[in-house]
Amino acid sequence: MNNNKAELSGSIAIIGIGCIFPKAFGVNEFWRVLYHGEDCIEQIPGSHWLASDYSLDKEDHIYCNRGGFISPVLFDSTEFGIPPKALQSTDTSQILGLVAAKMALDDAGYSDGSGKNFNKEKTSVILGVTGTQELVIPLGARLDYPKWENALKASGIGEKKTDEILKRILDSYPKWDENSFPGLLGNVVSGRIASRLDLKGTNCVVDAACASSLAALNLSIMELNSNRSDMVVSGGVDTLNDIFMHMCFTKSLVMSKTGDVRPFSEKADGTVLGEGVGMVVLKRLCDAEKAGDRIYAVIKGIGTSSDGKSQSIYAPRAEGQIKALYRAYESANVSPDSIQMIETHGTGTKIGDQVEFKALSAVFGANSKNGNGNKKNYCALGSVKSMIGHTKAAAGAAGLIKTALSIYHKVIPPTLKVDKPDSKLNISESPFYLNTKARPWFMAKNKVKRAGVSAFGFGGSNFHVLLEEHGNKQESEFINNRIDILSFSAEDKDELLNTINAFIDFVKTKPDFNKLVLKIKTERELFNCCHSKKTVIVIDHSSPVEEIETLISDSIKKTCNKSPDLSQNNSLIFTDTNEELGKLAFMFPGQASQYPDMGKDLVCCFKSAYEKISLFNHGFSDTHLLSDYIYPESNISIKSAQKKLNNTQIAQPAIGAVSVMMKTLLDDYKITPHACFGHSFGEISALWAAGRIDFDSYVTLSVKRGSLMAALKGNGGMTAVKTSLPVIEGVILKNNIELSIANINTYDQVVISGKISEIEKAEKIFTGLKLYFIRLKVSGAFHSPLMKEAVKSFAKGVNGIKFRPSDIKIFS
């Protein structure tokens, strides 16, 4: 394999994204769908065709009546200079392709009027589009009217009735006119974009079946590396989810009988079709950096191959896929074992997925350049098809965009419907795991995020792309929430109401998702906790704008309330207009409060939260990431993850990392405490939050405290008992049990600490007294004499820390 020449001579930057997928219009909505794992597969809508017309009793029938369908899109033809009368004769793929291309250029900052100039003479449009387009079938079917006429007449139908029937049939189809020919051509998908947006570089489409969009990407990279183009709009367009396409796949016996895509699952039984348009704006990396473009991800390598001679023209071959994988990694001089995520072709067909997994295992297994073939379960596998269906010509674009966004947002999104992996894959013994939940994507210091994307097409077309994160820090806020925090503040009531009313006026314009999110972000940045008048509202982005408007209006009515209020649609409104503000305290927890995935959504949504966990990673260990214990891989059971997290050496810095992360988010809202309370380990958190020690000292003490306490093997445990202190003391004294009172949490909850044998004696008595108790998730008898040895060593570490004065009080 090593004699293959590199196929990519320079790195390519993805600087803009435009997309329209099921339940997702635009890049931010698509990321929301990906992050939350929203299932966009549904019954065939009435706007398409009726499944009952093609039932099993018909000769040409279907057995799958579900798929991924794009929601209706508002289109202003005058914006693009297209006569309204031409729309009926223009394929949907051309219209939505034009919308997505403009969206991508806007996202890249190169829209008309943006003030950011680019050379249109060297801007190309190269897209993946399959040969069959939506209008071809109905326009072609109109031409069969002589056959209908002959059949009617042969059946004894009179001429007048025949003419009436023919007219009814023909009226159900679009009519031929001068716009029909260009309106049905696949190549005009790119041609219309180039024409309407005045782009004068190369303009063409590529057909490699379900690998079309990555084939177009390959050609786009060649254009850029040869300097024939300076910028390329590339991707895939496939809006064809009609009965013709369903019949094609049905007769090929690859459709799911249960109506769902279950990639690599034991229950996988085929694929379902989807609609989609995905576009990316590409530049040479050096040019993108020079122009100051926002860079989602960097294309480092691309590999292509053909299956060659095979038994079936559409049966996949592992040998061909292996060549494409090798060529991608060799073109970038990257070892496969440095890849953390693979967006597979993953169609949900048993044979197809097994062949793909075999190819991946061959490349990622013993053949890795660094000889780490024995590493297991380090690379996440996923397939966006589980959410939106198989979008055919746009499938590679959907996977590419998903992967670029994953790298950019530092999150590995879930794959749906894989409750149990296909047993034939033996995945637990492979380098892979199936990622079934959103997970923050952290890396060791000086390591980079890398991911691969595959797309394979009928006829043996194989493509694999290697993506890598860009070295520069991204400045934009993560946007992946279904819910959002809307906050306003002002020095007086009138100013607050004016600000809120101005926002309501903005909402009444019915802005799209992206504009609404950015507006909310702006208001959040202006929020000041020190203002005497403020209101905070939690809104749901899936709600209609009318509901959001009503919710904000409700907040105005509640400006005299001082307490939180839960409105009818479960959105929290908090309004505080009292100038006599009480004092605020932060309380930090100790060990036994830890649990897997704590604070996960915050880390995945807020850059400052992610960065704090990253810093704790760097101070925790040179060989292990603390975040791997807090946010475990989805193949690890909750029970197993909790057990690892209960290890004192991990638990204490984990609690510290999450405490820091949450405090940092409050800092972003300019919310500062008058006092800090610390419970057990939380005392160290309180010291940091109050400014008594710096962050590096906090990390050092957190790691040291945990490791020292963990070193005391077999030194007991702790139990919380729901009763009063006198009752506990009575049990201990009366039965001569050697236990310490560790915590008096409330008047009716006490924690005892000591040797396990002594705790078990006490628990037996508690059972007899019918007292509720629970063994705490700790590995030692904290706050007891059994900790003496750790105290001595920890004291030495504390002596090396510089303490600073602060106006914020500390309470233990």
Question: Can you walk me through this structure?
Answer:
The chain has 812 residues and is α/β, with parallel strands linked by helices. Helix 22 runs antiparallel to helix 24 (695-710) and helix 24 packs antiparallel against helix 27 (788-799). The chain is elongated.
| Strand segment count | 27
Low-confidence stretches: 1-7, 368-372, 559-573
Rg from alpha-carbon coordinates: 31 Å
Query: What is the strand content?
Result: 15-25%
Major sheet characteristics? 12 strands, mixed
Q: How much is the average pLDDT?
A: 88
What is the oligomer described by this structure?
A: single chain
Helix content class: 25-40%
Q: Number of helical runs?
A: 27
List keywords for this structure.
812 residues, alpha/beta, twelve-stranded mixed beta sheet, four-stranded antiparallel beta sheet
Task: Give a quick rundown of the structure.
38% of the residues lie in helices and 17% in strands. With 812 residues, the chain is an alpha/beta fold. Helix 24 runs antiparallel to helix 27 (788-799).
Secondary-structure blueprint:
Blueprint: E1 12-21, E2 24-25, H1 27-36, E3 41-43, E4 66-68, H2 92-108, E5 123-128, H3 136-142, H4 145-154, H5 159-171, H6 180-184, H7 187-196, E6 203-206, H8 212-225, E7 231-238, H9 243-251, E8 276-284, H10 285-291, E9 297-306, H11 318-331, E10 341-343, H12 350-364, E11 379-382, H13 385-388, H14 395-409, E12 411-412, E13 432-434, E14 439-440, E15 450-457, E16 461-468, E17 483-490, H15 493-508, H16 513-526, E18 533-540, H17 545-557, E19 565-566, E20 572-576, E21 585-588, H18 600-605, H19 607-620, H20 626-630, H21 638-645, H22 648-668, E22 675-678, H23 682-689, H24 695-710, E23 717-721, H25 725-734, E24 739-746, E25 749-754, H26 756-768, E26 773-775, H27 788-799, E27 809-811
Parallel strand pairs: 5-6, 5-7, 10-11, 10-15, 11-13, 21-22, 22-27
Antiparallel strand pairs: 1-2, 1-8, 1-9, 3-4, 7-8, 9-16, 12-14, 15-16, 17-18, 18-20, 19-20, 23-25, 23-26, 24-25
Helix pairs in contact: 2-7, 4-5, 11-12, 15-17, 19-22, 22-23, 22-24, 23-24, 24-27
